[in-house]
Every structure is written in structure tokens, then in C-alpha cells.
Specification:
Largest sheet: none
Radius of gyration: 18 Å
Number of strands: 0
Number of helices: 8
Number of domains: 1
Oligomer: single chain
Mean pLDDT: 90
Structural class: mainly alpha
Order of helices and strands: HHHHHHHH
Distance between the termini: 50 Å
Low-confidence stretches: none
Length: 202
């Protein structure tokens, strides 16, 4: 996506999400989608690994290597699957955005997670032995999780505005689209996890 005559979307998305998404989907809806999806999935995996204290049972290398390999794969599955659910539920509400535009809105709303990922990598460098052990890392790990919570709130605001733009929705209809899709997404993921657990037990 050429930015010769326009500010970078990596900067404008933070404060002008609707205008930024409009420009991206007009020029190239795929621009940055897989990269930002990978960032989101990777920092989410880091959070889960810390919350579950994987560092108590596995070495740092045995955690990082598979996570770095599977994160891009999970990112593709996540953005296409969640984008499809947004598309279906949005149609129920009168939305007309194509799937590719909804994937753009979904991925670009996660741009605050770039900061979260940078913080996790900083923690990996500063405190590698404890980064994946909940609370053992002291205030630094707690601080990362607090900042992550704040970034998630801002990402949600961007998500609402991005869905508004591509679906041509009001705020309330965009919120409804996001809420309904989140419910369906959670039910499907929970069902798949329970099915996988059932297969593991038998």
C-alpha cells in the first residue's frame, strides 16, 4: 500500500480509525492483515503461557520455538474464522461489507497489541527465567498485564469504529455485530475445546 501522499496508517489508526480503514480497504484490504493478526495471536499466547505458569514445567527455548512457529498459523485461522463470523452476523443486521474488509477491520483494530508484544519481548530479555511464571516475575510481569488490559480497551474502541466504517453501521449496530459474533465465536471455540478434550480422554 503506497503511502507517498498520505500519513502512514500505522500512525493514523490510533486516532483516526474510520478514515484509516476506509483508505486501507480502498487501496488494498490485505495490507498488514496477516502481520497484525500474528502480533495479536503471539502476544495472546504469551499471556496464556504466563497465566498458566508454563515456565514451571518447560524451558524457555522449548516454549518459544513452538510458539513462534504456530503463531502465524493460528493467526491465519483466527482472522479468517472470526472474519467469517463477523460477516455472517453482520448480514443479519443489514451489513454489506465483504469478508476481506471485515478481516481488515478485525486485524487493524489490534494495532495496540504491537506495544504489548514489544513489552513481552522486553520482559523476555530482562527476566527470561520467570517471564512465563505468573507473578513470580514480580512487578514487571504484573505491569505488562496491566498495560495489556488498557491496550485491549483501546483495541476494542478501534474495533467498534472499524466495523462501523466497513459495515456502514451506527455505533449501536456495530456493537451488536461485535457482541453477537463474540458469542458465536466463544461457543464454537468452547465446543471445539471440549471435543478435543473428549478425544484426549478416550
Amino acid at each position: 500500500m503506497s503511502q507517498t501522499n498520505h500519513p502512514s496508517p500505522w500512525l493514523t489508526m490510533w486516532t483516526q480509525p474510520r478514515e484509516t480503514i476506509r483508505g486501507i480497504v480502498h487501496a488494498n484490504p490485505r495490507y498488514g492483515v496477516l502481520w497484525l493478526s500474528t502480533v495479536y495471536v503471539l502476544q495472546s499466547l504469551f499471556f496464556i503461557l504466563n497465566f498458566q505458569s508454563f515456565g514451571l514445567s518447560f524451558s524457555l527455548a522449548s516454549i518459544l520455538v513452538p510458539v513462534l512457529v504456530i503463531a502465524p498459523i493460528f493467526a491465519v485461522v483466527w482472522v479468517f474464522f472470526y472474519g467469517w463470523i463477523l460477516y455472517i452476523t453482520g448480514r443479519w443486521l443489514g451489513g454489506m461489507a465483504p469478508r476481506s474488509h471485515l478481516r481488515t477491520a478485525l486485524a487493524w483494530s489490534k494495532i495496540p497489541m504491537v506495544i504489548a508484544l514489544v513489552m513481552w519481548f522486553f520482559l523476555l530479555i530482562a527476566n527470561p527465567d520467570y517471564v512465563f511464571i505468573q507473578y513470580v516475575g514480580g512487578p514487571s510481569a504484573f505491569f505488562v498485564n496491566l498495560i495489556l488490559f488498557i491496550l485491549e480497551i483501546w483495541a476494542f474502541v478501534l474495533f467498534v469504529q472499524a466495523v462501523r466504517e466497513v459495515q456502514h453501521f451506527s455505533v449501536l449496530r456495530a456493537l451488536a455485530n461485535i457482541f453477537i459474533s463474540a458469542v458465536f465465536y466463544s461457543i464454537i471455540v468452547f465446543g471445539l475445546l471440549m471435543f478435543a478434550r473428549f478425544l484426549y480422554l478416550i
